[in-house]
Design goal:
alpha+beta; Beta-galactosidase, Chain A, domain 5; five-stranded antiparallel β-sheet; Glycosyltransferase; binds beta-D-glucopyranose; single chain
């Protein structure tokens, strides 16, 4: 179902749902979630259990469940678990009569709220109000305020504690559960199966209004609970606050001790104080990251929703990856894909460089894993994991999809042929460097990554003597429907780019920091001669060029000879709607239908292609693209902007920004795999569309440039950028453009507006 009609907003800062739809548990649980990059707590209800997709996914807890080959993040026991009984009947949205139903996500303050009035068939009733957040000031902490008012005299019972029976995609992650009660706190200490990671979940509560007459603690094998009883008169209210801390031994030395201290301290501060600090921290995030859209409230809230989701998926407390589904569930193993560099990193490079730095440093930290992967497959250097967790070793399994017609597993080669991931990492490093001018990062970390990737590429290319060129064979480009292809345009162009960046780092260091260069060469285990290999390949690598007549770039060798059919016609060939379209026997394999278009991806990321080429390729590939990937709409929007297809660009903006909120296009199941959750890359892509597409922002060596085209449906946009160490305030309207350099800047910056250049000193502003 399309959820669009079920949602509303009053301030352009919140998502409000007024009708509960039991068929949308996966989607709404993700959409209404709270989080802080350390944990993601789904927007489910306190009385719900594993079957309702309740989850609190914690980063840096990668582990293989009992009997599983898949390393994934753990879903930890639910410390906010609370069931309310009115005269022994459970208050739940699944049963009884619900009125004044309200579930909201306050994007500005990172709060999840629920209100509802519930009555059973016997007319017993209660008014419920709950608010919760995942603290942005202490990432281990969840806080909740739970309040209910009796609608008639009666006995009201609460069961609140920690529910250890959690939803876990690949099975049981905990080999031991040790529940305890200590100093009025309840706790669960867990040990994971594979890694022996110790995880602690501790909770404490305090009553703010009314207190229970009876109170009892129940300890079960996987949980601990407080049974609390109240005899209330009609109109009486009970309110309590709950503080939960979740810690683990991959981050802290004594998880239980720390969790207990944090809960006790949190209860001392109280919910309101914790909330105030949390809100202040969100304020400072939005102060830098908000994009204000004038004249279109729907686009405004969609934009904020996507920035919110991208941000709560990002670990800001450590150098850890952004998962392809963030922390909304265990899908894609909580691990980074190329999505991180190409969709999520840009927003941070230009707004919060300190977060961007964590992300690129993560790629340095995981070099050993990338080197192991290269070595295992017979290459040199660093072949980054398609699915990258804590160590950078490849987490993606050989068998991912299942042939739904035969039940047999499909051997996909995402993990060994999708080599563009290594140059994508270089793309991220360069993006960060160009935006931040952080040369120190290149010296300490970046150059080593660039050299290791270059070495990998040296070992991966083939020299074709007869053609006097280097080629790349047996590839899988971003378009995953076509495996085992040669000379994929995206991969070949990126390979050249990555080698050129390694050469740039080499040459710059040779001139400025020869000793450091020598150190890195020693670490990588190469001689200066390596630079010649890089430049020879960069010069001679085959780049599929636009066809002289049509200007279309062939996606890979032989692509144009495949059956030319459109996605809708092809879809009719499906025997089962859940079939996988790609390798080896999927319906798209022998056709030109694409999951996502590699050439469009190339044109979206790089400049230098003529208007003619942009237009020809957009018009060729767009109708042949099925958008089986949530990454696809945003690059289409970006290229549509460049190719002056403004209406199309807006259509794709709407598609990218509503993928999760309106749940209009994504299936929860594909090729037999559960793929629900937040599409984090699409969320990051929304930022790119607005800033790089509609505002036409571009970083150049000597400054920054803008060439805006505001959608017809909007009046204007205002936003901040932090680029080349300058904080800028920008407003773009259909007939005017304004940039102001913040007073705190220490240097001037060159702004290019459609060819007109101005050097802006700190505190100055310019209008075009
Ligand atoms: C896409 C990949 C992407 C992955 C994780 C797949 O469906 O085809 O490009 O990296 O999802 O988001």
């Amino acid at each position: 179902m399309n959820l669009e009609n079920n949602l509303r907003t009053t301030t352009q800062w919140e998502i409000i749902e007024n009708t509960f739809d039991p068929d949308q548990l996966v989607t709404t649980g993700s959409n209404f979630m709270i989080g802080n990059g350390y944990m993601g707590y789904r927007g489910t209800f306190e009385e719900w259990e594993a079957k309702d997709y309740v989850a609190c996914i914690v980063t840096d807890t990668w582990d293989k469940a009992e009997g599983s080959q898949w390393s994934e993040l753990c879903n930890v026991p639910n410390g906010l678990f609370t069931q309310l009984f009115v005269n022994d009947k459970l208050v739940t949205v699944f049963d009884g009569e619900i009125t004044d139903y309200y579930r909201a996500l306050d994007l500005r303050n990172g709060l999840n709220q629920r209100k509802m009035r519930w009555r059973s068939s016997e007319e017993d009733g209660v008014q419920l109000e709950v608010e919760k957040f995942a603290s942005k000031t202490n990432h281990h902490v969840l806080a909740m305020r739970y309040s209910f008012t009796a609608l008639q005299d009666g006995t009201y019972r609460l069961n609140t504690g920690i529910d250890g029976k959690v939803w876990s995609i690949k099975g049981e992650h905990f080999k031991s559960y040790t529940p305890f009660e200590e100093d009025s706190l309840l706790g669960l200490s867990l040990k994971t199966y594979e890694q022996d990671t110790e995880i602690a979940v501790v909770e404490g509560i305090a009553f703010l209004e009314n207190t229970p007459e009876k109170s009892e603690i129940t300890i079960t094998d996987k949980g601990c609970f407080r049974e609390l009883e109240f005899t209330l008169k009609k109109g009486e209210t009970v309110t309590f606050q709950k503080v939960v801390s979740i810690t683990h031994s991959n981050e802290v030395q004594h998880p239980i001790k720390l969790a207990k201290e944090e809960v006790s301290q949190g209860l001392q501060y109280g919910y309101d104080t914790l909330k105030k600090e949390h809100q202040q921290s969100w304020d400072s995030f939005w102060d830098r990251s908000d994009i204000q859209i004038q004249g279109n409230p729907e686009a405004q809230v969609l934009t904020r929703f996507n920035i919110y989701q991208a941000f709560i998926a990002t670990p800001t407390h450590a150098n850890l990856p952004i998962g392809a589904r963030g922390l909304s569930c265990q899908v894609y193993q909580g691990a980074a894909f190329w999505d991180q560099e190409t969709y999520n990193l840009p927003m941070y490079c230009y707004t919060h460089p300190e977060i961007a730095k964590n992300l690129v440093t993560y790629r340095f930290d995981t070099l050993p894993g990338a080197k192991r992967k290269a070595q295992n497959l017979g290459y040199y250097g660093a072949f980054y994991a398609w699915t990258s967790g804590k160590t950078g070793d490849e987490l993606f399994p050989d068998y991912f999809f299942t042939d739904v017609l035969t039940g047999r597993k499909i051997r996909n080669h995402f993990n060994c042929w999708q080599i563009h991931i290594s140059p994508d990492v270089v793309y991220g490093i360069w993006l960060y460097y160009e935006a931040s001018l952080d040369w120190d990062f290149i010296l300490k970390h970046g150059a080593e990554v660039l050299f290791e990737v270059a070495q990998f590429l040296v070992s991966r290319v083939h020299f074709k003597k007869d053609k006097d060129r280097f080629e790349l064979i047996r590839l899988l480009g971003p378009d995953e429907y076509h495996e085992n292809v040669d000379n994929d345009a995206y991969t070949n162009y990126l390979t050249k780019y990555a080698l050129e960046k390694a050469i740039w780092a080499f040459d710059t260091m040779k001139e400025k920091e020869p000793n450091r260069l020598q150190e890195i060469l020693n670490t990588v285990g190469i001689e200066e001669q390596a630079r010649n290999d890089w430049s020879e390949i960069a010069e001679l690598i085959y780049l599929p060029k636009p066809d002289p007549k049509t200007r279309v770039i062939e996606q890979f060798d032989g692509y144009f000879t495949l059956e030319d059919i459109r996605p809708d016609a092809l879809r009719k060939r499906l025997i089962d709607p859940g079939e996988y379209w790609g390798w080896p026997n999927g319906i798209a394999v022998n056709t030109q239908v694409l999951k996502q278009a590699d050439v469009i991806q190339l044109l979206a990321l790089f400049d230098g292609f003529s208007d003619e080429v942009l237009t020809a390729n957009y018009e060729y590939y767009e109708p042949r693209t099925e958008h089986g990937s949530s990454l696809s709409p945003s690059v289409h929007a970006l290229v549509a902007c460049k190719a002056n297809h403004h209406e199309e660009a807006y259509r794709y903006f709407m598609e990218a920004s509503t993928i999760d909120l309106y749940n209009a296009s994504k299936k929860v199941m594909s090729g037999g795999s559960f793929l629900g959750g937040i599409h984090t890359a699409a969320a990051g892509g929304v930022w790119r569309i607005i800033i790089e597409g509609f505002a036409g922002f571009k970083v150049k060596t000597d400054g920054i440039a803008f060439d805006p085209a505001i959608p017809d449906a909007w009046e204007g946009i205002s936003f901040k950028l932090f680029v080349k160490q300058c904080l800028l305030e920008i407003s773009v309207y259909k007939d005017s453009f304004h940039v102001k350099s913040d007073r705190s800047n220490t240097d001037s910056i060159t702004i290019d507006f459609r060819g007109q250049q101005v050097s802006l000193v700190p505190g100055a502003a310019v209008d075009f």
